[in-house]
Amino acid sequence: MGTIADQRVGRGARPPITPAPVISRIARVRAGRPALLWWGWACALFPLYATVSARRQALVRTTGYDLGIFEQAVRAYAHLDAPVAPLRGDGFNLLGDHFHPVLAVLAPLYRLAPSPYTLLLAQAALLALAVVPLARQATRVIGRRAAHVVALGYGLSWGIASAVGFDFHEVCFAVPLVSWALEALARRNWRRALAWAAPLLLVKEDLGLTLAAIGAYVAWRGPRRLGLAAIALGLVGSALTFTVVLPFFNPSGGYAHAANLAPAHHAPLVTLLLAPLDAVRPEVKATTLVLVFAPAALIALRSPLALVAVPTLGWRMLSANAFHWGTAFHYSAVLMPIVFAALIDALRPYAAAGDPLARRHVRASLATVAAVTLVLVPSFPLAQLAHRSTWRTDPHVLAVRDILRRVPDGASVAASNRLAPQLTSRATVVLFPTFPVEGKLYSTDRAIPRPTAQWIAYDRRPPRSWPYPPGAWPYPAERQEREYALALARYGYVPVAQADGVSLLRRRT
Prior knowledge:
The chain is mainly α. The protein has helices spanning about 5-10, 20-60, 65-80, 105-110, 115-130, 130-140, 145-155, 160-165, 170-185, 190-195, 205-220, 225-250, 260, 270-280, 285-295, 310-320, 335-355, 355-375, 395-405, 475-490; strands spanning about 410-415, 430, 435, 440, 455-460, 495-500, 500-505. It is globular. It starts with a helix and ends with a strand.
């Protein structure tokens, strides 16, 4: 025989009411679960990216071009100086190379921990944070399980992996900004989207065009005047940066990379007409265009959000610099949040339909995304974590560490490209075989007094893990050998240590 309460329930009476505080607590727990998913993915991706970058630095696989250059700029900001990078040239203000005042944000961190690892860890954190808005939007639109696939696809995407596997670059700031801006676009929160996108003007000169593309989307789908204002801000901001700001800081008085986009042998109108053909003529360009959208199984192309990628893809495909065409380096990182935001948007109608056929389409699409992601991982830098060489310190690395330990703090050093970031946190480093000489750079074309660098650190061994051809960047191996011989025979340097292809010279006092 039940209790009186049981008998009342059996007669149709209402069951006991759960207290309001308990309901509120349950609601908070349920609401917090998706947030744990979003931020959990960021916390998982950060150590993954940080480990790849940190091991490359520890194994002397990073370079002066570009980690050393950026560290010199951030180091100058940390001491409230102009971002002069001696590796880029004697007295060269890095704002004359690319416009990235956002680097000053890292100055307080670098002042606390003056090390190249500070930049690498900051980059890992920024790239990992970009998964949060993507996973959050995927949860809203296509469900929590699907959000895991989106987060996995972004987190292991080759564009992010290539950025992590090549030093540090300012574009890491743009990746989360674009990700948050696209989430706001998908939610039709136009002002928030533009608030996230506007700082792109401070990250790099070409990203004003991405701001303009986001503004165009707002003008098409939302408040026209607001979108047109964003277009104007992006275009005018980039134009002023290209024509006024960069030439002002550049020693030559022009844009340092203008030759990459200048027409080689056509009139401007002919170049414009041939641009679509030139953009896809080399096979590597066509491959890159496909691979950009491959992590989303090409489904992202159904969404108009994919058009936000056009400015970045446009300048890369039209560049005369072959390095811009391929999948190496950091150039595709900013495209990855665009691709996955467009994927979510493309699947929205099917997720909203709710019928069995639409649900099967969503599941099949996400399964394809996961499969493509896993197929591409072994070909890009995240796979280095599975290589035995990543976790083994070879004799060459030990020789580098032992020899560079002899360079005193505060010294001036002409260092090989791979040795430079091992020294930039504690010395004034220029790139061997260029030397600062009485305010000028050394050149073999004319007789000049001896170099002023106190030390020369030279590594003649070709890199094992490097996207450039051995010995071809930034100076041919033959020239480096010639300058090394001249330093000993003519410029007054004496050998201090040598091991496993690494040499350290000191200038006679």
